[in-house]
Every structure is written in structure tokens, then in C-alpha cells.
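We include the pair:
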Amino acid sequence: DIESLYYFSELSKSLNMTHTANRLYISQQTLSNHIQRLETFMEPTFYRKPKLSLTSAGTEVLKFADMVIINHQNLKDTLS
């Protein structure tokens, strides 16, 4: 869903769950659940150790997520 893609995109910017969750005004568990939901339908998008970083699949998902987010915003702008 678009919300999960948005959270994924935001987490990809800082690569820090706590900071991203705080910035988005959601719990760290909520953010983690959205990321896990995405990964249920595809390969893992993040390496968790030694620190959070994107996998090669995550890099591709990020490109897709950014495109979807931009197109979603463009559609909202057009309809309003």
C-alpha cells in the first residue's frame, strides 16, 4: 500500500528506525510492521546488521516507491 511505501522511503533516507518513527509521529513498532508487510511480498529490503542498510532489492523498491509517491501526489493535485 502507498502508506507502507512512504514509510519505507522515509526510512531509506535516515536508515534509523527510531529517528524515522519519531519524525513521522508513529511508533517504532508501527514503522517496523509496515516494513515487514512490504517484505512479506518481496525479498528483504534492509540488512539489519551490523547497521541498517538497503539490500539491492531495497534499492529497486526505493526507486519504485519514490515513483509511486510522486504519481500519487500528482493525482491528488490534479483532482483537487
